[in-house]
Structures are given as C-alpha cells and as structure tokens.
Amino acid sequence: MVKSTPLKVALLGCGVVGSQVARLLIEQAEDLRARIGRPLELVGIAVRDLELERPGIDPALFTSDALGLASRSDVDLVIELLGGIEPARTLILAAIGAGASVVTANKALLAEDGPTIYSAAEAAGVDIYYEAAVAGAIPIVRPLRESLVGDEVTAVMGIVNGTTNFILDKMHTDGADFEVVLAEAQRLGYAEADPTADVQGYDAAAKAAILASLAFHSRVKLADVACEGITGVTGDDIAAAKEMGCVIKLLARCVLSPDGTIAVGVHPTMVPLAHPLAAIGGAFNAIFIESRNAGRLMFMGPGAGGSPTASAVLGDLVTAARNRVRGGRGPAESTYSGRGITAAGDVSSRYYVAMTVHDEPGVLAQAAATFARHGVSLQAVRQESEGEQARLGVMTHLALHRQVAEAIDELDAMPEVATGISLMRVEGA
Amino acid sequence: MVKSTPLKVALLGCGVVGSQVARLLIEQAEDLRARIGRPLELVGIAVRDLELERPGIDPALFTSDALGLASRSDVDLVIELLGGIEPARTLILAAIGAGASVVTANKALLAEDGPTIYSAAEAAGVDIYYEAAVAGAIPIVRPLRESLVGDEVTAVMGIVNGTTNFILDKMHTDGADFEVVLAEAQRLGYAEADPTADVQGYDAAAKAAILASLAFHSRVKLADVACEGITGVTGDDIAAAKEMGCVIKLLARCVLSPDGTIAVGVHPTMVPLAHPLAAIGGAFNAIFIESRNAGRLMFMGPGAGGSPTASAVLGDLVTAARNRVRGGRGPAESTYSGRGITAAGDVSSRYYVAMTVHDEPGVLAQAAATFARHGVSLQAVRQESEGEQARLGVMTHLALHRQVAEAIDELDAMPEVATGISLMRVEGA
Known about the structure:
Oligomer: homodimer
Largest interface: A-B, 60 and 60 residues
Number of domains of chain A: 3
CATH class of the largest domain in chain A: Alpha Beta
Radius of gyration of chain A: 24 Å
CATH superfamily of the largest domain in chain A: NAD(P)-binding Rossmann-like Domain
Structural class of chain A: alpha/beta
C-alpha cells in the first residue's frame, strides 16, 4: 500500500556524493516510493556557493541557509554530506532537534564526537544512520550493528582507505618510492592535492574508531586510535615484505585483547599472501571480521567515489524512511561493555624488525639472545651480507609491543648495529 | 535502560544448529540482554525424540508438542530450525497467528512457499527474518533488503553450497573423478550420506530463488530456477577449464536480463581465475553482487555449520527482539517490480562448447561457420589432434542460450562430429 503524502528530505552539501544523491532521488523516485511505501520529496539543498552550475538539479532547490533548512519542522529526513566537525555537528543537532532522522557519511564527526549525536537522536526518538561513513558502498555498519549482534566479534580489520592502498600497490608492482607514486596518484586523481588525511592514516583512524565502537559495544574515539601513516614506508620495507611472502597494506585493526580491552590502531602492516586481505588491490576496500561463532567473514568492494557512497546513503535513507512509515526505529548506540583501550605496550602482534649490522661473527647470536631475554620468540630470520655489513631481518611470533620495543632499545645501543632499526607489524597467526 | 520482564523465546528443532542456538542463548544471556534492552527467556524446545541426550540444555525445556509450543500466546519470538516444508509451514503460521515474530533458516520452505509466510506475517504485524537461510553466517539477506535498497541491483551470483565447492575443488587439485571425490567428501563429513540435494543443485537453487526475490523485488520460486548439478562434470571438463584459464564452480546466478526479466539458474560454470569467485575454496561460500551505483561487492565466509548458522539466527533474533522493545518492524516482502522469469532460450551468457571431431581438413571452418550462422561469435578456439580425431573446444562471446543450442543441434547432425557435444556456461565479460 503506497500512500501519497511525501516524506520530505533535506540535503546538506552538494559535492561529488551530494549531487549524485540528488540525481538518484529524482531518477529512482518511483522505485524508492515503492520500496518505502511513500514518495520522497527533496525540499532543499544547502550549498556554500549558490552560483555554481549543478546540471540536472532544479536550481530552485538550492539555499545558502543550511541551518534554516536543517531546522525546518516539516522535514522528515536530513542527509548530511558536508564532512568535518563544524558546521556539520550544529546542523545535525538542529535537524534532530526539529524531529528529523539523519543520514550522514561524516566519519570525522562520528569518530570525534559521535556520542553527542547518538544521545541527541535517542532523546529525540529519531534515527541516525551512517553506513557511508566507513568503506563506501560496502555494507559493514549494518552487519556489525545487526547481523552479528548475536555473536561475539573478536577482531575487525581492514583496508579502509583506497588512496593509500593504490599507492602501496604501485610501490609493490613498480618498485617505486613513496614520493614518486604519490605524485602519480595525484596526477590520476586517486590522491588529493593535500593528501595528509589519507597518507598519514587519519582517514583510516576515524573509520577504525567507528568500527571498534560497533564491534565491541564501547565508545572508541579518534584519540584512542594509534595512528601511523605510509609516508615512512620505504623500498627496503617493500622488498623485505616480498622476501617474507607478504605485501604491505595500511591496516585498520581493532582487536579484543586477552585482558578484555580493545587494541585499535592504523599501521602499515605486512600481510601474508595467503591472507584474504593480501589480494585486495587498487582503490578497493575490504573488511575482515573474526567472531566466535560466525568465524571469519570478509566484505569487499569500492571504498569511495560518488556513486558507491551515494548507494550507501540511499540505502540508509530508505531504511530511515521505512521506519517513519512502518513505525519504530533502528538500533541505538550500544556501549554497555564499557571496554577500555589496550595500552600501546600491551598490544599483541607479530612484528618484523630490520637493521643493518656489522658483519662480524656472533652478531646474529647476540641479536637472537636479546630478543629471547625480552621474551620474544622468533619465527623467521634472514641475514644477507652487503660488503662489510649485513642486513638482518627478523619476524617474531606473537609478542607484546613493549617486549619488542625493549629489545630494540637494547639492540640500538649495541656497537654491532650500524643503523636505525625499523619495526613493522605482521598480520596473521 | 534494560527492563527486567523477559521476552519469551520458543525453539522448534534441536539438531546441530538448534542445540548451538540453545546453548548460546544461555551462555550469552547477559550480552543479549544488554543489546536488546530486555532479557530473553527460552521457554521451550520442540523435538521429535524426547529421549535423546542433549548435554548442557535443561531437560525440562523439551517437548514433543511442537504445535502447542509454537501456538503459545505468551511467546514473543519463535525460532524454526526443522527444515523442510511440513510441519515447518504449519508451525510458523501458528506462531505468527499467535502474535510471535519468527526467525527461520528454512530455505526450502521460503523458496517453495515464502509468500504465504510473508503475507501472514504482514497481516499479523509481526516480523519474519531469515538471514541463516542463505550462505550461513554471511550477511546477505540484510544487505540486499536494507543496505542496497536504495540502489539497482543488476546481478547476484555466488557459491552457496559448500559441499559441491569442496568436491569441485578436490576434482581440480587431485584430478580425480566426481564419484571418487564424493566418496571422500562423505567419509570426511563434508557430504551427507544422501548427497542428492547438494550435488543435484537443489539446495543452491532454493537459495537462488530467495536471492533473486530480494535483489529484484519480485517473487521468484524454486520452480523458476533452472537447475543443473555437478554429477555430470567430468575430468575432461576440469582439464578444459584449466586450459581456458578458468575453474569450474557451481554458481547460483540471478541476473537482470536486457528485457527486464530475471534469469535465474544454478549451473556448473567456468569462472576465470581473475574473477573474485574463482579463489573461494573448500567449504566456503561467497556472494558477488553487481549494482548500478555501488558497483561490484563480494561477501565471503563459512556457508554452513552449527556455529556460523547459529550466529545468523541469533543476529536475527536480537533484531526481532529489539523491534519488540523499541517498537516498529523490519522490512516486509517487496514484490512491486513483478518481473517475469527469462525464458531458458533467452538467457544471455558466455558458453564453452566441446566436441570430438574427425581430424579432416575443413572441419574447424564448418564448425565456425555453423556458430556464425546462428549469430554466435567466438572468443577462443582450441583444437588438439588425438590420432584420427581431434578435440575441439570453443568459448563464445555473450550469446543467447537458444542460439548456442541451435548451433549445437546442427553440429550434432554433422558426420564430421564424432561424439556428443558438451556445453558449459562461462562467467565474466
């Protein structure tokens, strides 16, 4: 039974994603109406620049008064696609205050101050959906909030930034250095003019905070996420990874530690070729989940782009609209477990440690003894002479970061060690 | 805010999945209570054999009166894990009639007579959830019903039967014949004593009907699914696939045809090694989705087994329970598009055609001319002499099944063709 009174939709932001959402709301109007049970009516689009040409969208819809649009009491659904903390937060809170349900793709805001938004939505009895905030069109928020809600998730990790995945991919295939590949990625439009948020890992860290919150029913904020970008990844690292049967990926990793705290970080990580995440190339994203009963699941697809992100936004919009039509609401924030964050030194992982040593008898034995003294057992060792020096690479079994760091400090002070020591995490058991 | 009045749960069936669900309801009671906002209370388990030992479950819960349990007016949620058409249908309808929401893993019933169940649930204002009916713990029903509901899905295809995937895998790696590998799979517990439903493709066909219904907002029933099992796959087929850079997978394939009808079938299919589905090995399942805006997505994980299936059942149970607590309901059946089924002859695919011919001049030219006459263009041809005969293998570009079948009929009548002609679908563009 399709009723004819439309649900009113306001759109905040009309960039790559917003303009695609606006076009799809018009093009797919009949399908959306049938799926919701009532038509949607786009009543306004808030933009900064009213003069910009936006073909295919009725110019009468545009307004520069974002707060006025978000606060309209007759609007049922508000889509926020501005990004950033302000004015997005103020506008979302205004929309919630006026009784609208909100769909957003704003990972930065949710990772920084999600609880303020969630609490306001709960108090007002409206929905907040944000599937598009993590991994574009790949359904991951809904599977964690709903499909796996009867299970115990023990780890969520993934490749959630396409720009860095593209760059690391090229470094592997071309053997080229980071700066060279970054310049090419910028030329091809895979990296932005200011690539900081991507290459320093901040974008992935915001997504990790959201994933960890959902997976472990806790509040994890951006500041809780240990964050390391890919700017320090060298050609030597890539070569070492190849030798160890791995590729280097920028992994967002959220894992339940043995003491019940949450280890959450973004790091360049060696991933063994046999691991499903190793094969995720180019601008693709993938999320890997381990849970007590479901076992190991993986979801992959395009992690960014106007159309994929618009697909995720519209999926949320239809869900929120159906709730208006059929009554009821989507799931609220779930933080009952109140888990803390694992201290940096207590993060358990495998690690790869590389250093250049003077090629003298007994150096390897000393290095091995140093690791052993700190309780770190070794899974693989590679030593290769280069004239009077040798490259020494060591892959550990599972160890605490503190143990490995202490061993490195000691090694660093040894006269036999010629250069600074590099450290990288290794995924997989 | 957690209220203390429990929601009452009745469980129908206590086999591998049911006993795991019962145990998890007890073990995870505190987590489930926190996630739902009210505790769950398991009030009864209907079983056929009351005498059977079921360790870890309170014997007082068991009853042989399934209808009495399903019809209890104080029960909020009924989990149906009996499988098969009857008595499952009668019990589910009784539960709905008594006002309970229903969670089921019953693919056979939903593929055969889902609309009767969905209509009853809609009329009674209760939920029907069935994530566990397709691909075990892999979230796929919810992504199709909710995440992608704002998009236009154009194809859903997947490996949805672990037994046949295990058998085909072994045939590839060992070069062994179907019967030999089947016997081994039965010995290892990967195939049942009566493997008919798996190896004939009926299990996959039921899942294909459910996936097609969801993806295309139509009613697709088991009888609509063209179904071909793997019993006819030979060592020659495997060798031909390898030569073409493919592996053979039993694919459930639901595709929107150019005329707007739905092509839905289960067939042994050559999948190019570069396709993400080619790498899915052993008892794993994977579903590949193509949609207009989201692009290409893939979901993979364990497709069967007690714990993974129990995870999917509990995810649905928590969602249905939350709806009771927060008000509202999940999405209903969506059939507004009313699409028909593509006629067998109109199914568009790539095909691989193999035959043995007398090794005489001009045979290849005649075969090629026959395909051309029926509008079938060829992408690759392999011919290999074997004494006085030659093996001829032909991979077509996209063609209609009717065109290829007509060409085969004509070739079959040619004196130069020595043996029966084999035909297999090929996935990918």
